[in-house]
Amino acid sequence: MTITLLVSGALGQTCLEQILSTHRVNFVFTDRGSASIIQTCRDRNIGCFVGNPRGGRARSVLSAAGCEVLLSINYLFLVDEDIIGLPSLYAINLHGSLLPRYRGRTPHVWAVINGETVAGVTAHLMAPEMDAGDIVAQREVPITDQMTGADVLSEYQRIYPILLGELLERIARGQIHPVVQDERLATYFPKRTPADGAINWAWSRERVRNWIRAQAAPYPGAFFTFAGKQWTVHRSVPDPLGFRHENPDGQVLKVGESYIVVKLTNGALRIGPFNPEELRSFTIGDQLL
After folding, report:
1. Could you tell me if 48 and 69 lie in one domain?
2. Residue 36 located in a structural domain
3. What's this model's pTM, rounded to 2 decimal places?
4. Which segments of the chain have a pLDDT < 50?
């Protein structure tokens, strides 16, 4: 098969290398930040369009990029119909959720935020509407209560190539059987930025803990404001410490050796780690914002 790829980032690079080991890739679309993908294309003499292809920007290369299968993997840009209509067989996107749930950006992070116990990867036919095309393959990824958003993405690094290999084999055998998504079950979640990581101390203990682990390092982290400073948090665990219900949520209950314990509406949460100098900024009874 002749394959054209739309790929970005480390996940896109992993999948590009896996596909190149078994198939011919005649053209790649990527973004300026994906240096390893650009370099691979140079090393392998593969045509490469770098940048946003929307608005006809890539029209001049489309005829040269004719292909049988178009695959979109972790691609940063929305795709116009001129690119979707490029392949003679299928235009397929791999999305990091069990569609029709979690359409949109960074679905694995939202899944951890929402306390899901399972995420997954879906291969679906590309359509003008975001993540709305017929499903052609799916694989589940369990989420434990200790996993961070980055941990789930690491699992995706393992699962995506496996799903791709199975998918390409099924295409070669003519065994693709698309299943229409049930729109009644669709959920949508927006793109996230580091500025969206503020902790709301009025949330439940479980919600705050999920919020923190979803964005933990190497992601930028959840944060709160105190004493005119923004404090980033990458780890939290439930704490058995008691409190009075009428005390305000976000109140510091304890200052430990490397952590503080914070009161929430349904329980206490230990957050940190902080270094000893940082901990001197906190005293019992302080109110976090």
Report:
1. yes
2. yes
3. 0.92
4. none
